[in-house]
Amino acid sequence: MKLPPGVSAEQFQAAVQRMQAVVGTDWVLTDDADIWTYRDSYTPFYGDQVAEYIPSGAVAPTEVAQVQQIVRIANEFRIPLWPISTGRNLGYGGSAPRMSGTMVLDLKRMNKVLAVDEHRCYALVEPGVSYLDFYKYLRDHKLKVWLDCADPGWGSLIGNALDHGVGHGPNRDHFASICGLEVVLPNGELMRTGSGALPGSKAWQTFPYGYGPHIAPMFGQSNFGIVTKAGFYLIPEPEVARSYHIMVPRHDDIHPFLDQMAAMVCDGTLNQSWQIDSPLLGSRDPKIAAAVERADGGSSSELDQMSRDLNIPYWGTRIYLHGSSKVVDAKWQDVQSRLSNLEGVKFKSGNAYHFPDDYDKVKDGDDGDVFAQTACGIPTMSIYGMGIGGSNLPTRGPRARLPHGIGFFSPIVSMSGEDWLGVQKVVRQTERELGMPLSRSAGGWAWFRCTLVLLYVQPIVDDPEKNLRMMDNVRALAKACARHGYSEYRTHTVWMDDVMSAFSFNDNALLRFHETIKDAVDPNGILAPGRNGIWPKNLRGKKI
Ligand SMILES: Cc1cc2nc3c(=O)[nH]c(=O)nc-3n(C[C@H](O)[C@H](O)[C@H](O)COP(=O)(O)OP(=O)(O)OC[C@H]3O[C@@H](n4cnc5c(N)ncnc54)[C@H](O)[C@@H]3O)c2cc1C
Q1: In angstroms, what CA-CA distances link 57 with 37, 79, 146, 228, 290?
Q2: Which of 223, 342, 401, 424 could form a disulfide with 528 if both were Cys (CB 3.0 to 4.6 A apart)?
């Protein structure tokens, strides 16, 4: 067993006994077999249990008062705790902590849907409520609201949102959909944010600010508190949701195209996520591959010519529009007219789904859309049926080999042609320097307002040397991107320090501010040491 730093086996055992008295002996888990289930099954430290971040155990309460008691015991015995909601954060560390010996605080037994208001479109839930649970609740109660879910339906509304997770529907930026938190602070005290601080508030899930500084965002991607309840905005069930394809012929069209898409995001015409892709660069045609592999990556005029010859558009996207039929039709007319100045642009209507009749008819893969269900607020696990990640990893042909796991490298850029091309240039140049296989056409996801997230999927294989090289390569890619002003939106526990260190403006003023807060709210350093690069005073600067 890996004990927390500075804690003896006797002290650990004494803390375990105290926790058992709170939650019952069955719910403090310290056997190797139990601990195994909390390890990161995609760990890049595959086969290296010294380097791998392995918890000392797990404790699983059912009530807020138990969480408070556990936190107080953890303070007394200096046992670090790593809270998880459903613990499915695969690709970003799974349910394992950032530091070995940390005990997992597993909140998945706290799984009540506490309120849903279908007229004001909000919900209040506990951490263990998964997307699949919540969807079932909505359908069972015939509630005319949608949730916005991540690709794997077994994830939780709260855990996903706290890691700044994303989906494909109208509330795709999940943290931005939070309205009101209940938090156990690192000293065991219970606090409600926003309107929830007013005893008996009637607006906790409708008015996020309450009075004074807006504190809730401090609990996303941080280690300042344990969220025990969260309010979420929901989406009114639309009459219709319909997908549409837009195909843009030339390389340089990307500039006016993204300018217009951004304008349509800002004025609310487009309010679901969409993905910009290059069907041309992604094609299997050997001439394309040869041009991209060349040092100059292929000139734009040469690739434009290939696009014409092969009749494959340079850029393509699929959008969803939802609302009443009248609104959807009008928006689609408007989208076409606003993009009509791009010579040769092509439009195609895709499937239309009507609600509530079509919930069981929407299927991933319909009309070539592997995310059709999540785009319509229907959680699914089908992403795991596409090879791990449904990604740009080779799953067919001679290089085909499903990886043991995946890690994500996901730089963000503004929704402009200059930045979209710019970040890909930096990535390819760095890949060449590192001798990595060249990524041809990563997708750019419009999950955040006027921002594109490039999602590069890195394979984790059963070869420790390859994994170490991959980890170093991602560090180098992240550094190169940061030098050009492109940061990451989220990362795996193994890269948290690297990503945080890139946000270094004015001698790391931001990190120093985080540390000031950390020292004030968690002087014993018991909550999630190292999460998002924020370390408590006693561990700061140590190589952990
Ligand atoms: C193939 C594949 C596809 C994926 N697709 C998506 C996608 O579309 N969108 C997306 O966002 N992610 C995606 N992911 C990543 C991940 O699977 C999801 O984000 C998942 O929802 C996270 O797991 P969870 O909800 O169980 O959160 P958890 O693992 O429970 O929590 C995430 C992190 O938040 C913190 N945390 C959790 N609960 C609390 C709490 N109550 N208080 C304080 N801190 C807490 C913890 O540090 C934890 O590590 C994908 C992963 C894979 C492998």
Answers
A1: 10, 11, 36, 20, 51
A2: 223
Between the CA of 167 and the centroid of ligand 1 the distance, in Å, is 12
Does ligand 1 have an atom closer than 6 angstroms to the CB of 230? no
Measured CA distances, 204 to 129, 137, 188, 207 (Å): 19, 21, 22, 6
Instruction: Say which amino acid occupies 427.
Output: V
State the DSSP code for 211: S
CA of 157 to the centre of ligand 1 (A): 9
Q: What is the pTM of this model?
A: 0.96
What is the rounded CA–CA span in Å between residue 166 and residue 475? 23
Listed in sequence order, the residues at least 6 apart from 169 whose beta carbon sits closer than 8 Å to its beta carbon are 146, 147, 148, 149, 235, 272, 273, 374, 375, 376, 377
Distance CA 284, CA 281 (A): 8
Catalytic member of 131, 244, 314, 489: 489
Q: What angle do CA 128, 159, 489 make, to 5 degrees?
A: 170
Is residue 130 a contact partner of residue 109, using CB atoms and an 8 Å limit? Answer: no
For the chain, 544 residues long, give each residue's pLDDT as a single digit of tens.
Answer: 899 999 999 999 999 999 999 999 999 999 999 999 999 989 999 889 899 999 999 999 999 999 999 999 999 999 999 999 999 999 999 999 999 999 999 999 999 999 999 999 999 999 999 999 999 999 999 999 999 999 999 999 999 999 999 999 999 999 999 999 999 999 999 999 999 999 999 999 999 999 999 999 999 999 999 999 999 999 999 999 999 999 999 999 999 999 999 999 999 999 999 999 999 988 888 888 888 777 777 788 999 999 999 999 999 999 999 999 999 999 999 999 999 999 999 999 999 999 999 999 999 888 888 889 999 999 999 887 765 544 444 444 444 455 678 889 999 999 999 999 999 999 999 999 999 888 766 689 999 999 999 988 888 888 899 999 999 999 999 999 999 999 999 999 999 999 999 999 999 999 999 999 999 999 999 999 999 999 999 999 898 8
Q: What is the DSSP letter of 233?
A: E
SS3 346: strand
For the chain, what is the largest distance between any 2 Cα atoms, rounded to a whole number of angstroms? 74
Atom of ligand 1 nearest to the CA of 225: 43
